[in-house]
Design goal:
about 325 residues, inorganic pyrophosphatase (n-terminal core), about 40% helix, 6-stranded mixed beta sheet, single chain, Diaminopimelate Epimerase, Chain A, domain 1
Amino acid sequence: MDDFSRINEILENSKTIIVAGHVNPDPDCMGSALAVCSILRSMGKDVTLYRSDKYPYNGDFLENSGSATEIVPDFEPDLYFILDSATPERTGEAFFAKMSVSKSRKILFDHHWHQNTDFYDAEVSDESASATAAIVWRWAKDLGHKLTKGEAEDICFGIFGDTGGLRYASTDKESLFIVSELAEIINYGEFCSQFFETLPENWFAMFAEVIQSMEKFRDGKVVFLKTTLEQLERFNLSIDEIDPFVEEIRRIKSVRIVFRIREVEPGKLWKFSVRSKGDIDCLPIARKFGGGGHKNAAGFTFYGTLEEGRKAVAEIAEELEL
């Protein structure tokens, strides 16, 4: 059972709080942050929500989705409340620079593997949790807080994001129980429609192009696909809108692992997303390149040319036990 006593003690003595998550926030990061902000405000706290990048497009329906600022706050809070960020540096260069020299207290909720440091005054980290949003749900229970409809949707959004809508291996008994409880507060059918059925039409056109250029290794068990900045501009899509590409490719029966390389800076900086099935562990692969994540979903940043990135993937593919 998680011990939130130190977290709650620090919160009791904190009035102004900045809540933040990791760069390129995913649904778990977004949902966890929104829920925490709402709960803290119900406790009478003065809360500022910071995001380093745009939130996922399919989270626009969430009650307070537009409440975050992308400008690093210029004041010093009593507390920094960080969510879903394995290392404090992942909150973004500018935000971390401010937080790292601050004497204010810092706390963390997370479910990623990370090395223990003395950066935080208190943290609740559980690698076995399906999502950070599940930890937020546990905290709300510990507080005796009755979730609002908006908070329930936030938490459900986070859990859906990291479990693929309760389809991935990360789905466990707790996540199923949490969602079953949340379903009594929200309109579950409408929620699922908002989560799954909001893709822009151009998404399909770009996806078709990406599929045509994808490469297969090891008899189709390993797939490599790339997305470029030129494609994003031509199809008028944002980064968060193309994230589902890698998940769709993983649905192919023969595929065991997918490497998606996304261009970040023209020709020299790339972001790898790695997704696998079953017992294939993505995390050691990501760690080779300084990245992180989970067993079946991980990522890392790659510096170099596209061909160098492709070569790195090919070498990894040959070493995998499939």
